Amino acid sequence: MHIALSFNLKGDAVGLMEEPAEPPSEPPDLPSDDLFAEWDDIHTIKAVEAALASRHQVTLVEADLDAFEIYRKLRPDLVFNIAEGLHGASREAQIPAILDMLGIPYTGSDPLTLGLCLDKRRTKEILAQHGVATPGFTVVNSLAEIPARLRYPLIVKPTLEGSSKGVTDKALVRNRHELVCQLEWVLNTYHQSALIEEFLPGREFTVALIGNGNDLTVLPIVEINFDTLPAGVQPIYSYEAKWLWDQEEDPLQIFSCPAALEPLLRLQIEELCKAAFRALDCRDWCRIDVRLDAKGRPQVIELNPLPGILPRPEQNSCFPKAARAVGLSYDEMILAVVDAACARLALPAGVSNERCRML
Ligand SMILES: Nc1ncnc2c1ncn2[C@@H]1O[C@H](COP(=O)(O)OP(=O)(O)O)[C@@H](O)[C@H]1O
Ligand SMILES: [Mg+2]
Predict the structure, then answer these.
(1) Rounded to an integer, what distance in angstroms lies between the CA atom of residue 299 and that of residue 199?
(2) I need a surface site. Which of 47, 101, 144, 153 has the fewest CB within 10 A?
(3) Contact partners, residue 123, CB within 8 Å, separation at least 6
(4) What average pLDDT score do residues 13-19 get?
(5) From ligand 2's centre to the CA of 302, what distance in Å?
């Protein structure tokens, strides 16, 4: 099969500014510091290319302003989509939307789901409508809209970001003063509404899923161990924890996989994640963040239908970690996503979806 790999390269600020941008290295005091946190680095793109090339013919197509014309001429059999898009609240939907327009099939969720999942408010509204547990929340556009009565602690985050952008160590607020300071920072830095969410104090997990319909497979659950963070910091998987304190040369031992879980709780988390996947109409793969509330009940924090997939184990990327825990190499994980897409699209992938079924 001829597969095109659709990506945005970190450090290649095409369409945004003339000079190449640096990936974030400083704490996020400035709005531009985390601008490209969600884009992929060259090692990830090369690793995905190599995985696809082990079974298919591969062409790399950058998700920039030329992408439409390139796809129009190239017409691959399938696009493996990891592009996070250029700008705007629906940026992750951009490449899937032009592929839909051109009638070219692709891996992963459609534009509507990708746009919705980047909007934490809309995601939670849909989860709530489907009876999928998610923490209570309100959304504000200005300090004047802060409700008079709130129960602390709370989490404050930008409504339309991912990759922990805007979720710093100060996102967990314990009183009105902290809330106002953090809201002011989020509103002024990200120029978008802010989500004020009930803080779930329990254990946190992230859950990788591959497949569709009755072939939806939950990979071993990853637990995030906050006691491995530097002393005195908040028990959240913050921007600092994800991008600054956890370095490849000195990785934090922050994840356990498979998480040590009672069978009943494990089942509850798996069922919750499958319900969330279905409520948002996700396709082929997704990683879902879950945390336990004060009573130990799992709730969905957010869905990542374009999950991070850093290739090297030292890079502590959760989706590949979960795949490794069930015996899937990086290449096999990527090919399992291709197989899931091919099964959904009834495309002849060369092999059946055995890889997923065996899990
Ligand atoms: N309601 C919440 N209760 C407890 N912790 C939360 C809550 N919301 C976010 N967090 C913490 O902040 C982290 C990042 O928030 P998340 O909504 O997953 O944003 P991102 O899209 O940036 O990953 C989570 O992994 C979790 O540790
Ligand atoms: Mg998250």
Answers:
(1) 11
(2) 144
(3) 116, 117, 134, 280, 302, 303
(4) 40
(5) 6
Q: What span, in angstroms and rounded, lies between the C-alpha atoms of 97 and 90?
A: 10
pLDDT, residue 247, reads: 75
Closest to 358 (Cα-Cα) out of 222, 170, 210:
210
**Tokens in use for 217?**
């497979």
- Dihedral of CA atoms 185, 188, 194, 198 in degrees, nearest 10, equals 10
Q: How many residues does the chain have?
A: 359
Token pair in block for residue 318: 């959760």
- The reply to whether ligand 1 has any atom less than 6 angstroms from the CB of 199 is yes
Tokens of 286: 């997704």
Q: Average pLDDT in the 296-308 region? A: 97
Which residue among 301, 316, 319 has the greatest number of ligand 1 atoms within 8 angstroms of its CB, and so is best to mutate?
Answer: 301
CA–centroid distance for 212 within its chain: 18
Which ligand has the shortest distance to the CA of 291?
1
Tokens of 239: 């921007």
Q: What's 191's DSSP letter?
A: -
Q: Which residue has the higher pLDDT, 18 or 178?
A: 178
